[in-house]
Amino acid sequence: MHPTDFTLAGALAALEEGAISAVELTRAHLDAIEALNPRLNAFITVTAEQAMAAARESDARRARGEARPLEGIPLAVKDLFCTAGVRTTAASRILGNFVPPYESTVTAQLLRDGAVFLGKANLDEFAMGSSNLTSAFGPVENPWSRRDDPETKLVPGGSSGGSAAAVAARMALGATGTDTGGSIRQPAAFCGVVGIKPTYGRCSRFGIVAFASSLDQAGPFARTVEDCAILLRSMSGHDPKDSTSANVPVPDFAAACKRSVKGLRIGVPKEYRLDGMPAEIEALWRQGLDWLHAEGAETVEISLPHTKYALPTYYIVAPAEASSNLARYDGVRYGLRVEEKGDDLRTMYERTRAAGFGAEVKRRIMIGTYVLSAGYYEAYYLKAQKVRALIARDFDQAWEKVDAIVTPATPSAAFAMGEKTDDPVTMYLNDVFTVTANLAGLPGLAVPAGLDAQGLPLGLQVIGRAFDEETVFAVGAAIERAADFKALPRVRAGA
Amino acid sequence: MSLDTATVRRVAALARIRLEEEAEVMRLQAELNGILGWIEQLQSVDTEGVEPMAGGAPGGGASARMPMREEDVVTDGGIREQILANAPDREGDFFAVPKVVE
Q1: Which residue is closest to B17 within chain A, CA to CA?
Q2: Residue A11: strand, helix, or coil
Q3: Number of other CB atoms surrounding residue A118 within 10 Å
Q4: Mean pLDDT of A225-247
Q5: Separation between Cα atoms, residue A205 and residue A135, nearest integer Å
Q6: pLDDT at A206 exceeding the cut of 60
Q7: What would the pLDDT profile of A343-376 be if each residue is shown by its tens digit?
Q8: Domain residues for A90?
Q9: Which of B17, B54, B57 is the closest to A200 by Cβ?
Q10: Do the Cβ atoms of B57 and B63 come closer than 8 Å?
């Protein structure tokens, strides 16, 4: 067996048995990155020397009997998490040479638990995108391709496209991501891996480059539901440095993966049946519900009546918060500065931001600035916050009838680079099934469940009650067992 | 509601983004109007008596799970060099900026 083919849980067992060392495991993944990254562009920065040093330290610790929960596990870190002493770019020119003097809480906890960081994964600029095409460091290629058209390069989804592609191509055993409107779940579905956005407040946002603070949540990617559960446990927990992080106990999520779904009531929201949805996705959704039914779960038709307003609501709330958060990039304290002789301060700001931000980021800052500006605040921003409350209320009412909700993860399989890019709104529709969980603050998991006619992965989404990731993991694991998803991307390590 | 080019320029100025070329203004005008036209549909939702959801916590805003108050004590500081390490321009212990006052 090639070392990059381990699951995370399998690697932990092999390390414990001495069947493999952390150095061997890390070396194998760095070799995979060296071989595949020139093509896939999943990493912006590779920290090979630091990874090998950490792996040696990890083997020494294990030899002393001091192994930690993730001892020696090689991971990719989305380049939105600040990593002390390692360049953090948010895939933007404006942060190009920023080296954080501190570590984000989530990555600090992964290091505390013994993880080995391979490098920083590519993403859409400031996590704004669904294709990874907006990165200032170039697009990421999806390791999967169409059966009848293997030459056409597909997007990995976004914004955490590099994380998803790295895990799918076996360049990492797992990865961190962030999800503001679907940025973990959509790329997970496009790349045939598992990803979860936990409940808002489950993971600290400290040290994560902010996009939309009331929606941003960190979460893991891995190739199995259990592996995601293992990673999420290390990433979660209350942090005094983030006033929105929740002070609740962190359960053993991996144990929840073994729970039966017998007797669970699974909600099927009728508003998620979209006109023009591919028949394969509709069929996969029905198949997923049949699998759960066979395991003893009951399926219940529910209504989430404000679903169709979720995306327009998101495209007011998220840009408004982004325009405020991104005001900090002014060329003074860190990052890019662009000025010409004789410029005043304001002209320097304007030149720096014009040169430093890409087109999609500028669009969103402009929308956000407009909806927050005098005279429009109530009509747009306040109105969106009220509709957001109605979307959250829809879910509150659903939880009276069901224990979890199952939907498709995305309205299509991965699309080709160059498709859907002309019109921003068409691109935004990618997040139609995922964005509601961000607006309501609820946990959502994407799990690969089948292939389309072109051999591309399709995912299902499980949404749960606030802070009930355990039920989400139980349902996700049941779908995973039934789907028995064994297909592999064409581009991968060891292939 | 449709933005004219003057409004696009005004919003860009508020956002401190320099727009150099007329073509960029025109392109942004078309894109922003496309997005704003699409989000206009929210006006048809009845939100009479609905409290706006301001925060991201399930249930809205801060919740009982989040401590509302913390002791007001110094928890950090004395890291001037770390803070200045990424400055594009500095003079001694200060961030340097273009001349602001004549």
Answers
A1: A350
A2: helix
A3: 28
A4: 96
A5: 21
A6: yes
A7: 999 999 999 999 999 999 999 999 999 999 988 9
A8: 1-495
A9: B57
A10: yes
Report the candidate in A196, A185, A245, A218 with the shortest Cα–Cα distance to residue A82.
Answer: A218
CA distance B94 to A191: 47
From A183, A234, A323, A412, the catalytic residue: A183
pLDDT of residue B2: 85
Rg (CA), chain B: 23
State how many domains chain A has: 1
Q: What is the pLDDT of residues A411-428, one digit of tens each?
A: 999 999 988 766 778 788
- Which residue carries 């799990």 as its tokens? A447
Amino acid at A99: V
DSSP A368-400: HHHHHSTTTIIIIIIHHHHHHHHHHHHHHHHTT
Among residues A319, A287, A315, A274, the alpha carbon closest in space to that of A433 is found at A274
Residue A209, pLDDT > 80, answer: yes
Q: Give the integer Cα–Cα distance in Å for A201 and A212.
A: 14
Structure tokens at A120: 């920083």
- Which position among A130, A135, A159, A204 bears the catalytic label? A159
Contact call for residues A91 and A136 (beta carbons, < 8 A): yes
Residues of B in contact with A392 (CB under 8 A): 53, 58-60
C-alpha A174/C-alpha A227 separation (Å) is 8
Give me the CATH number covering residue A378.
Answer: 3.90.1300.10
Mind listing the pLDDT tens digit for each residue in B5-35?
A: 999 999 999 999 999 889 999 999 999 999 9
d(CA A393, CA A389): 6
pLDDT at residue B66 is higher than 60: no
| Encoded tokens for A351 | 């030149």
φ/ψ of A146, rounded to 5, equals -70, 140
Average of per-residue pLDDT across A269-288: 94
Checking if the pLDDT of A162 tops 60, the result is: yes
The CA–CA distances, whole Å, from B50 to A239, A271, A378, A380, A461 equal 31, 22, 13, 15, 29
A456 pLDDT more than 90? yes
Name the β-bridge partners of A117.
Answer: A75
- How many Å apart are CA A380 and CA A400, to the nearest integer? 31
Predicted pLDDT at B64: 47
Environment class of B54 (CB within 10 Å of its CB; exposed 0-12, middle 13-18, buried 19+): middle
Tokens of A151: 């030459």
pTM of the model: 0.97
Nearest CA among A149, A156, A142, A141 for reference residue A453: A149
* DSSP structural state of residue A277: -
Nearest-Cα distance to chain B for A237, in Å, is 12
| Cβ pairs bridging A and B (under 8 Å) | 191
**Are A482 and A295 within 8 A, CB to CB?**
yes
Q: Calculate mean pLDDT across residues A304-319.
A: 97
Name the minimum distance, in Å, from the CA of B47 to any CA of chain A.
6
pLDDT at B67 (0 to 100): 54
